[in-house]
Amino acid sequence: MSTFDLTIIICSTMAGLVIGGLFGALPWKQEQLSDRQQRMQQMTGFIGLCGVLALILTRQDAASWALIIAMIAGVGLVRIPPLYAWIIKRFPVCRPTSKKHKSRTTKKGKTGKR
């Protein structure tokens, strides 16, 4: 392996940890995501996918595997309870939102049909 290959592997690993960390820091339940968090999640996934595809197309197999494994490790690291609590406290953009749902029951009344 050349120095160039090692540099690409190290950079893709660091990027994968950041991408995985962002995925892990955002709420996992759809109803707890705000619109901004949904956009962040979609863009992060798109960037991760483009990174893996670019590495595969340039025949950087070790770097593409490093990126995939680092994204998985990033999610796992951020989901450690004390670290997750610190991230939620430190970065308000990652906090789950509690959207109030309207009641599904309707008032009984005249429907117009007889």
Feature tags:
114 residues; membrane; mainly alpha
Pattern of helices and strands? HHHH
Distance between the termini: 82 Å
Q: What average pLDDT do the residues reach?
A: 86
Shape: elongated
Count of helix runs: 4
Helix content: 55-70%
Structural class: mainly alpha
How many extended strands? 0
Approximately what portion of the residues adopt beta-strand conformation?
A: under 5%
Radius of gyration: 21 Å
- Which regions contain 5 or more consecutive residues with pLDDT less than 50? none
The main β sheet shows up as:
none
Q: Could you walk me through the main structural features you see in this protein, from its secondary elements to its overall organization?
A:
This protein has 114 residues and is mainly alpha-helical. It has a domain at 1-8 and 35-95. The protein has helices spanning 3-25, 35-57, 61-78, 81-90. Helix 1 (3-25) runs antiparallel to helix 2 (35-57), helix 1 runs parallel beside helix 3 and helix 2 (35-57) runs antiparallel to helix 3. The N and C termini lie far apart (82 Å). The model has no long low-confidence stretch (mean pLDDT 86).
